[in-house]
Specification:
It is a single chain. This protein folds into three domains: 119 residues, ATPase, nucleotide binding domain (Nucleotidyltransferase, domain 5); 189 residues, 2-Layer Sandwich (Nucleotidyltransferase, domain 5); 195 residues, Hypothetical protein af1432. Helix content is 47%, strand content 17%. It is built from 20 helices and 14 strands. The chain has a six-stranded mixed β-sheet with strand order 8-7-6-9-11-10, with helices on both faces. The chain has a five-stranded mixed β-sheet with strand order 3-2-1-4-5, sandwiched between helices. The chain has a three-stranded mixed β-sheet with strand order 12-13-14. Helix 7 packs across helix 11 and helix 18 crosses helix 19. The longest helix has 24 residues.
């Protein structure tokens, strides 16, 4: 079994002793068997991913005469599922929910295969239709992407089928599944490598013909004036995003959630890959041995879909069918009463989930966040002009600024950076997560410096955001120094003529002099003053 991703041994231990249910979702696909293990946090509602499993089994390599799943593929799949069960048992999974898709639903012996899984492993597997697969993909993406009441076109390219969905924050408008996939098309159209012009042109024409109905349906369900966005999921799309976003050191990103694929870059990559042998493709960082065999066919599906939909770019979502199975279970259990409510608070729920995981003192962090946002709002148009989207980044950084205590009190601000940066904050792009992590990182000790490694990949504007938001966060942290809510409110007014900023604080208890908060503010304010070129003067209201 390969690609086991566990958050940490400490996290696993916490999950084991939690009373929240731990469940697993398995997707038995045409190319691979995937499993995700999650802990349900019912009161948010949300789920925390504990581990992932993936193994390439190629059920799609069916008998060319009968269309049956081959004995060899069945054996590989049974072995992978058994290993999934073993991992699930080791992590105290209470229930496994498994679904089978294209290869199994189309094979004449698909139901026999499912029965053999149940008899040999005691695992119940549901074969789902293409439309049901699309619906659960929609739910999975809905759990990981902020729709902001904007329609989104979702594409999931599997080994045997491609799902195209048009959905908004409320519901999916169209759900389609087309029998074109990376494994299927490689077998039928690309028997040799490098790939000839003739083979590639045949493939492109076939893909366009197969996608036409689904794309016409999407266009018909868009309202006049709507400008939809596009989201891509699946191993093919994740691989393409990884290759197209290799950094200056030749390394693929650790996570590609929120990364972009540009149509123009995709066209160039296809032209490059199709001129290579399979062995040559494997030398490219980010492309595995088995993926190198089918990557061109999958890339062509994506290119044609984007072209036909008139989309120049798409964003990658790492959540898909497996996570959709989890969300669907939560819906059936009554844990999510309103899908729109669930969708609208992805960022907040994800931030609170991380805070809970790392034992953050939430009342303190929430007070700090409220104070920080108040300071940000009161100084807008005076010492900064950041738009409203920045508020969410500051809020999340404030909630998580002390998460590093989970590792150690010493240098906990640095630990906070790593826990946030490499945690599973959903609804944010990778660059936004980087900003949140850095703002939290600089809530204490030294201010941001160009030489710091964690700032190297940020643009000038992004470094400015980090410097200014972290300076504001420092002031907010000082104002709750005793962690008792001693200060209930603040008023801030900046005089740019005298270069003075007057901060008035209002104690919760009128008899409280807030001596420790005043001392902490005097200690922390120099970085704020330097950043904004202002003198910060404090008075008690």
């Amino acid at each position: 079994m390969v690609n086991v991703v566990a958050e940490s041994s400490a996290t696993v231990d916490r999950d084991r002793i939690s009373t929240d249910p731990i469940i697993a979702a398995i997707d038995i696909g045409t190319n691979s068997v995937h499993m995700v293990i999650v802990r349900i946090v019912a009161d948010l509602p949300a789920f925390s991913i504990i581990a992932r499993e993936k193994e390439t089994v190629r059920l799609g390599d069916r008998d060319p005469q009968t269309g049956n799943l081959t004995p060899e593929a069945i054996l590989r799949a049974l072995g992978a599922l058994k290993r999934c069960q073993e991992v699930a048992k080791s992590l105290n999974v209470q229930q496994i929910y498994a679904v089978a898709t294209s290869a199994v639903r189309e094979a004449p012996n698909g139901h026999d295969f499912v029965r053999s899984i149940e008899s040999e492993l005691g695992l119940s597997v549901n074969i789902i239709s293409g439309q049901e697969e699309a619906r659960r993909i929609y739910l999975g993406v809905l759990s990981g992407v902020e729709f902001n009441n904007t329609p989104h076109m979702i594409i999931d390219i599997g080994g045997g089928s491609t799902e195209l969905i048009l959905g908004d924050s409320h519901e999916p408008r169209t759900l389609s599944s087309t029998k074109i996939g990376a494994v299927r098309l490689t077998t039928e159209f690309l028997p040799t490598n490098p790939i000839s012009d003739l083979s590639l042109n045949y493939l492109r024409a076939f893909v366009r013909g197969q996608l036409e109905r689904a794309i016409d349906e999407i266009k018909a369900n868009l309202q006049p004036g709507e400008l939809p966005k596009m989201v891509g999921t699946s191993g093919t799309i994740e691989t393409l995003a990884a290759v197209l976003n290799i950094d200056k050191n030749g390394q693929v990103p650790d996570r590609i959630h929120g990364f972009k694929i540009q149509l123009s870059e995709l066209r160039n990559l296809i032209d490059r890959l199709r001129k290579m042998t399979v062995a040559e493709r494997t030398t490219i960082e980010g492309i595995s041995d088995r993926r190198s065999e089918i990557i061109v066919a999958g890339a062509v599906i994506l290119q044609e879909a984007m072209s036909m939909l008139g989309m120049k770019s798409l964003s990658v979502c790492e959540r898909s069918l497996r996570e959709g199975v989890v969300v669907d279970w939560m819906l059936t259990q009554g844990l999510i009463e309103d899908r729109l409510k669930y969708q609208g608070s992805i960022r907040e729920r994800s931030t609170l989930k991380i805070a809970g995981k790392y034992g953050v003192d939430l009342p303190h962090s929430q007070r700090v966040a409220e104070l920080a946002l108040s300071l940000l709002d009161q100084t807008h148009g005076q010492i900064h002009n950041w738009d409203k989207s920045i508020r969410q980044l500051l809020w999340s950084a404030a909630i998580l600024h002390n998460s590093g205590h989970f590792v150690s009190h010493d240098a906990h601000h640095k630990h906070s950076y790593y826990l946030i940066r490499y945690g599973e904050l959903l609804g944010f792009t990778e660059s936004e997560i980087d900003l949140i992590a850095n703002v939290a990182r600089y809530h204490r000790k030294s201010p941001p410096k160009k030489k710091h490694q964690n700032l190297q990949n940020l643009t000038k504007d992004q470094r400015s955001i980090v410097s200014q938001l972290s300076a504001i966060l420092r002031v907010a942290v000082a104002l709750d120094r005793r962690r008792i809510g001693a200060i209930k409110d603040v008023s801030l007014n900046c005089d740019l003529t005298t270069r003075e900023c007057h901060l008035t604080f209002f104690p919760t208890d009128p008899a409280d002099a807030c001596v420790l908060e005043c001392w902490s503010l005097d200690y922390k304010k120099p970085i704020f003053e330097t950043e904004f070129d202002l003198k910060l003067l404090t008075t008690r209201g």
